[in-house]
Design goal:
mainly alpha; about 100 residues
Length: about 100
């Protein structure tokens, strides 16, 4: 089982990553939309772009999974519950910022 502090840190880290991903998505959309024709950024255009970029509720289902930051903690917990472990491994930054 995780301690309260590590669980809180993981939640805070996940929230920070989600915030970074949202900001990067909005910035990328604005950059990619620029060559299509310059539009003055107004409350109406901002809302339209923001609503287009932000993920739909069904695209956020992965956030409901109780992910573990430590593989070993996940293995120990999975063995106790007789459940499998999904190991997600990748090379580089998830937003390709390497």
């Amino acid at each position: 089982m995780k301690s309260g502090n590590s669980s809180k840190r993981e939640s805070e880290r996940a929230a920070a990553i989600m915030g970074q991903m949202r900001r990067a998505s909005i910035a990328l959309t604005l950059l990619l939309a620029a060559p299509l024709g310059a539009q003055e950024l107004t409350d109406e255009t901002f809302a339209k772009i923001r609503d287009h970029v932000l993920p739909a509720p069904d695209e956020l289902r992965w956030t409901a999974v109780d992910w573990r930051a430590s593989f070993w903690d996940a293995v120990v917990e999975a063995q106790k519950a007789d459940k499998p472990v999904l190991l997600w491994a990748m090379n580089g930054h998830p937003l390709a910022c390497t």
